[in-house]
Amino acid sequence: MKANPTSAFLFAANREFIRNPDVDYPFRQESNFYYLSGFSEAESFLVLAPASKPGANYRTILFVRRRDPEKEMWEGERYGVDGALHVFGADEAYPIDELERKLPELLKPAEKVHYRLGHDERMDRTVLAALETCRRSQGRTGKSLSAVADPNETVGEMRLFKSADEIELLRKACSISADAHVAAMKEVRPGMNEYEVEALVDYTFRRKGCQRVGYGSIVAGGKNSTCLHYRANNEVLRDGELLLIDAGGEYDYYTADITRTFPVGRQFSKPQAALYDLVLKAQLEVLKLAKPGTPYASMHQRAIEVLADGMLSLGLLKGKAEDVIRSGAFRRFYPHGTGHFLGMDVHDVGLYQKNGEPRQLEAGMVFTVEPGFYVQPGDAEAPAEYRNIGIRIEDDILVTANGFENLTAGVPKERSEIEALRASG
Ligand code: GLY
Ligand code: MN
Ligand code: MN
After folding, report:
1. 367 near 404, Cβ under 8 Å?
2. Domain count for the chain
């Protein structure tokens, strides 16, 4: 609001969705809404309205569900208008059923509205109707409310740089998630089903205070590890195969995102070890770049260089490294990016390029580093010993003033450490 004193910002709460009769999908508040309000109830709406006269402050207005003893008996307590004012510190608060009537009035002093159009059609209609009402009075007020902007231009930039409090929550999410991965590394045995391991991982998240997963846990044994977002998690784990677990718990709306790959038995086979060491080398090389001033995109470039070299020296590709990179041939084994920003959303807000320029790392950013290597089951040209192997190693990295802090260092990733843990479990 300081940077946009004549703008109004509008944020709708997430909707509740019905899964089947009398059962809702688990509700989670929309991230921007929670970031700005701390308010986690559905059917709410947040307005940051410009000051109505020069020199005054902007106003925070929350629309919330009315208190309702009958409904609260069934579904739990609500904060109501009083709570919005006295617990959440809104300057003004109203019942949500007054949104349509009140919104035009609140938008009157605004010259620009920041609202995410296209996400929720019903809410779009309410907001567009309010804009139209404001425009009709333009002739009299002389103000023109003509522009609708994406709120993420501002809020995304704020969320990209984590405050000390946010970093504490991320540390907590990461340390709990690290415990969950270590538990899996100790307890997995041949003959277990992927869903048993998913249950163990998710149980550890919940037991230690995470409210939910940050994304559906991926527990992928054998050939399933070559499916990047495998979600079925329902096959039996076999000795001799690898298990890839990509899972992160969400703690007070901040999520971890960790991947480890380890043997279902005790040890990596020779071909598994060769690919594993290559992916680890790529990850460690990328981490050397994790410091302020590094162009974000150069980390992916570095991962590709290391992995492409490996593809050639292992005989999986032929030719020169620069050609393999220029032609994109490396994508056969490494089809995804090397990471993403991390925060309230697993694929967090924030621009990787700004004004056409590649973005540089700055202190307070958090991102993942997750190179991988996948040889698809149907890749008939790849040597059979490498087929069905999928490996990813993913850590969560906070950029500090001089370098980085690995928030997920609690899970081993050196092959010898993993094998020691597998033997001790
Ligand atoms: N778990 C999704 C990702 O690693 O991006
Ligand atoms: Mn990730
Ligand atoms: Mn992941």
Report:
1. no
2. 2
